[in-house]
Write a structure and sequence with these properties.
The complex is a heterodimer of chains A (about 160) and B (about 800).
Chain A lengths: L3 E8 L2 E8 L4 H8 L18 E4 L2 E4 L12 E3 L12 H8 L9 H14 L5 H7 L11 H18 L1
Parallel strand pairs in A: 1-5
Antiparallel strand pairs in A: 1-2, 3-4, 3-5
Helix pairs in contact in A: 2-5
Chain B lengths: L4 H10 L11 H4 L16 E7 L5 E7 L1 H4 L4 E6 H4 L6 E3 L5 E3 L5 E2 L5 E7 L2 H10 L1 E6 L37 E8 L1 H9 L3 E12 L8 E7 L4 E6 L4 H12 L6 E4 L15 H13 L3 E4 L2 H7 L3 E12 L5 E11 L28 E9 L16 H19 L3 H8 L8 E2 L5 E2 L4 H12 L1 H13 L3 E10 L11 E2 L2 E2 L2 E7 L5 E5 L8 H13 L6 E5 L16 H28 L6 E4 L2 E4 L2 E7 H7 L14 E6 L8 E10 L6 E11 L6 H20 L31 E4 L17 H19 L12 H11 L8
Parallel strand pairs in B: 1-14, 12-13, 16-17, 24-25, 31-32
Antiparallel strand pairs in B: 1-7, 2-6, 2-8, 3-7, 4-5, 9-17, 10-15, 11-12, 11-14, 15-16, 18-19, 20-30, 21-22, 23-24, 23-29, 26-27, 27-28, 30-31
Helix pairs in contact in B: 10-18, 12-13, 14-15, 15-16, 17-18
Classes of the chains: A alpha+beta (about 160), B alpha+beta (about 800).
Chain lengths: ~160, ~800
Amino acid sequence: MANKHTVSFKLNGNDVDVVVEARELLIHTLRERLATTGPHIGCETTHCGACTVDLDGASVKSCTVLTVQCQDAEVLTIEGLEQNGELHALQEGFTQEHGLQCGYCTPGMITRAYRLLQENPNPSEEDIRYWMAGNLCRCTGYQNIVKAVQFAAEKLSSAQA
Amino acid sequence: MAASPDLIEREAALQGLGVSRLRKEDARFIRGQGTFIDDIKLPGMLFGAMVRSPYAHARIKSINKDKALAMPGVTAVLVADDLRPLGLHWMPTIGGDTQAVLADEKVCFQMQEVAMVIASDRYTAADAADMVEVEYEELPAIVDPHKAMDDDAPIIREDIADKDEVSHGPRTHPNHIFTWEAGDKDATDAVFDNAAVTVKEEILNPRVHPCPIETCGCVASFDKVTGQLTVNVTSQVPHLFRTVLAMLSGIPESKIRVISGDIGGGFGNKVPIYPGYVIAVVASIVTGLPIKWIESRIENISTTGFARDYHGIGELAADKDGRIKALRFFALADHGAFNSHVSATKLPAGLFSICTGSYDIPTAYCRVDAVYTNKAPGGVAYRCSLRVTEAVYLIERMIDILALKVGVDKAEIRRRNFIKEDMFPYNTSLGWTVDSGSYHNALDKVLKAVDYEGLLKEQAEKRANGELMGIGISTFTEIVGAGPTKVCDILGIGLFDSCEIRVNPTGSAIARFGTMSQGQGHATTYAQIIATELGLPSDEIQIEEGDTDTAPYGAGTWGSRSTPVGGAAAALAARKIRAKAQKIAAHLLEVGEADLEWEIDRFKVKGNPTQTKTMKEIAMVAHTGDLPEGMQQGLDASEYYDPPNLTFPFGAYVCVVDIDRFTGETKVRRFYALDDCGTRINPMIIEGQIHGGLTEAFAVAFGQEIPFDENGNHLGNSLMDYFIPTSFETPHWETDETVTPSPHHPIGAKGVAESPHVGGIPCFSNAVVDAFAHLGVTHMDMPHSAYRVWQQCKALGIDKHADT
């Protein structure tokens, strides 16, 4: 297979190997080859954030990451947040606070909020609005998304206390 | 008397009307397990990519497919000539016109569909699309609709140049589509001629796009053996979609299955039938393989589902105290290259004649002239009923302009002109019957909440200091829930809607609808309506929509019609079931039906409250032989609901802005929205809809616009340019409500999701203009971007610091 590359990385804790052209985007590898359809495509210009995944501890828009850049990386998507049948506090928060409507931006939103809470477990409303500004939502007006993140932050911090 | 704990507990167990029930849809979405169109993957599926025109107006001299076809993985390249033998190179539009599915000898807008490449995957398809060689001869383009009917204007649609009519009355120019009017012109002119005060303003609703985060797309799959066509599609109107496919293709409707799965936002963008869908269907019929076609974002903004582009002129005539005596509105409507405007057949300008708003205006006349230009075709209703944003924007701007002219406060002038509570149902001078309203009450509540007097005082102080502060008011009336079949049809099909409910022996139920959720939460709210009507817990009522093989026929979800029409069908279908259940209960309790009364979840014998039958008990009995003489088993019903009237939600909004006169930046300090949508089904979902609608209004007012250069080239068709507000710039929303039920709706509900968009846009504009009102400014066109607002400051000479 000329012009193809084998890439190995960890996806939601599991080892995966894919054979891709150098130009293949991570979002397409996830969605088309690895049955990971939680991250979505909403634009081609890295503006909407529907494709947000966590790559080695940073939020990235997987529509502008080449899969060949992911050798040995750890990739986390929405599918990896639920642990042992228990929802992540953010997943619970988005439901409890009505932080989603059509659900299309939700996986990217939650994955981005996950990174926010890793970096800043106790964000203010302004922190949240600033951190989430790379993820577009047309349904909710963001107000309940802010509440959902606050719900999760409180739940996680009270669990640690 | 307080309800007993038992009653409260039983009521709570239903999770019915009025409860902020958490959404049943969320479980899959928060796990990333929704099934959106691009998640559909079928064995052998091929991918379609479009070849599009770089020119806004050009003749196609030749198309050479050879290089594309020679590429590995490419199955076909389809052009108009390939569709011609099937008669599918053109298709009828909702607006009564025809539209080229693939450009037939000429292109009439930039990015028009010229060819579709079918290939093994999306990368190969995109590569091959670049290899299709098309030779064009460029023609002069018309971009400004005001020039469309000039004597020397190039003819855009040569295919219909000699047609006197395109389904909506006589045409006066080859680029003229229709002229539509309502009201009494002569009487209106007479009032204007003798009025104490008149005002006139040119007011633009620019071309914008609904831009849902998921673009449009489909997977068409034709089974050559059975002749069955299955189309998964992002459609807000799956049943109409199937009917149109049947009309187009000649395939019997029973052999076509249209499935709208999860839809990543619609806002009107996903109502029409686009060329991409038709080509995908043809490609599947030809190849016998499933074909997926998904728009890119640039394709989405450039070609499918633009909204507005209404160039208005508003005029009001009033007495010296600002009491409106007559209204005269014109609009020049730019429908682009094909009239695929979404409207009901008899309403080519949609519901524009709701432009008298919340006001008692005795005489009115309005006219809309629609023209062709070299821009993408259409005109969808972006989070509103058909042309209602345009109408409400005009009246809500004009009443402010009148207030300035007569020197009356903008709240007071609204009070003077409101339709009063005792006048409902109120017949407008343009022919609508507004069902119910309580406008004074709503406005007073909002003004008190925001301390309007205090704001005016603060504004006066700021103005004295040279600062710009604006207070915007909007007191709008919407018209939603299309609609009565005697008024509203699309392609001959009335805009009724439907619900089928089947109760299972153990008392759970399934209900199916002709509507189609795109995030509105139907699976949650419809179950609440049925739960209250039937006394069964909403958690045990499953809601389904969107699969034409199983759902009853309906006109889909747009124009806030789901609750007004589908919700009514749900309540009435449930009432049929309850009527049958009552007969069974009377039989079991050995009393007459009239001796029974309904209490939350059961029938009880009047005067003997221990004698009861719950709906769950009755559900089981309905599946036994112990039934009244002659009654059949089963507990189900269906309802096709043809509404007697539309519904008229309303609201009163206040917006406060601070504008930096040196940069033109506008800060929305406060936005207070009171909505009255009649009976409230789920307050949590209502509030969410209002947040979303206000945010889309904010987007339109402050940044959205699809600009073109004079040759018809797009100047902003990706998210790099097209404004979608982020969490950071979106204001904080305050919500409030009054409840004035609709008298003609079975549960009194009116619909809500579009009110905040329709009412929000003029409220923002009114606030921005108000910031300049003391400087003699009466109107500023949207979008109120910092640059455009700064230009206003510059024109007034207030953009410079005093010491520079």
